[in-house]
Amino acid sequence: AIRTSDAGRLLHRREEHVAEVQEHYFDEPPVMLRGWRELLVDEDGRVYVDALNNVTSIGHAHPLLVHNIARQWSLLNTNSRFHYPQIAEFAERLAGLLPDGLDQVFLVNSGSEAVDLALRLAQAHTGRKDVVAVREAYHGWTYLTDAVSTSVADNPSALETRPEWVHTVDAPNPFRGVHRDDPSRYAVDAVAEVERLADAGTPPGAFLAETLYGNAGGVALPAGYLEAVYAAVRAHGGVAVADEVQVGYGRLGHWFWGFEQQGVVPDIVAVAKAMGNGHPLGAVITTPEIAASYRSQGYFFSSAGGSPVSSVVGLTVLDVIQSEGLQQNAAEVGGYLKERLQELGTRHPLLATVHGFGFYLGPEFAREDGAPATEETAAICDRMRRLGVIIQPTGDFQNVLKVKPPMVFTRESADAFVDALDRVLSTGW
Ligand code: PMP
């Protein structure tokens, strides 16, 4: 298409050299120039409520983060083979957030790196390559993490193209999935798969899952799911890997980590996104025994992982989450938002259910026969944007809104979001 406006010309320039496979939100994306808390401002000065940016955990342009980063850059930034106070402090703080025994920290730069390293640690520790992972999940773009990512929304042929060491089990979705009539069957089947692999002489080295089904729209796993599968994997010498990249770090409100909601403790935890507020930051936290087994691979080094600036970012984000009570805010405002969305569902049948907790919510749209309302959801997101609210679909059917706003989201913004959605559902999309 010939693009004549300034925004159109900019999009054209982007499309010329940013490889096309790196998609952008919206067909006609607004040109964003500023962010503040949970608000975004485009080139025309139009303000949008950002209900989407989970990476921006403490809000856009947080003044303390801006100040601390600038200060640290002006003092020192170097790689983590040098010795400086910030890395010791940050690793100490991260270890303190996890249950006893999980106290060895690896600092990297992204969620993909964190999950990749978590799997390598599991493989090094157990001496086994085989991994059991849940379907419809996304864990990253690196070779290892892509191998265990089977969301058809990301790769339509994902299930046919897995390496032989990747074993997938049904997406444990109690609302939409093969065992929706009896969700306890998901654990039974996953345990059976672990047993089958053990009987075949290839017991899995790791079981990998998001602890709340983030990629499916914040769907809570069936009660007892992780407990049963972790036990089966451990009984055969494997380890439990938790991908907390999206759902961890306080966003769920009542729980800081997703695994707490399931009442389990993993052996290896991968963290990213929220911990850096958009600065590239990731971490793996595990036990001393598992961490030590990496020695068999050589030593571990990441140039920018755990640098003074990255450590200061991590420390500041944690300080702000704590001092501004953002986990508490996720519980309170997130709870209010969920109630309002549920009420909307009583008036608009297209809104079939609302998944999730706190600031990780997934309003799911379905037609009268239960079929996923995929086209409707895309149109709803487009109309929401025109009404000044940024939101996008998720899940294999792209029929769930991924509501995961900056954790400073206010009650007023929650109202603005629900009122806009009410208007779209009432007047058509
Ligand atoms: N794990 C999960 C659950 C994710 O959602 C993502 C990113 N969407 C990743 C891993 C990869 O993180 P990153 O984009 O930082 O590499």
Automatic annotation (TrEMBL):
The keyword Transferase applies. Coiled coil: none annotated. One of its GO terms (molecular function) is transaminase activity. Keywords: Aminotransferase, Pyridoxal phosphate, Transferase. The keyword Transmembrane helix does not apply. Belongs to the class-III pyridoxal-phosphate-dependent aminotransferase family. This is Aminotransferase. It comes from Microbacterium rhizosphaerae. The chain holds residues 521 to 949 of 949 of the full protein.
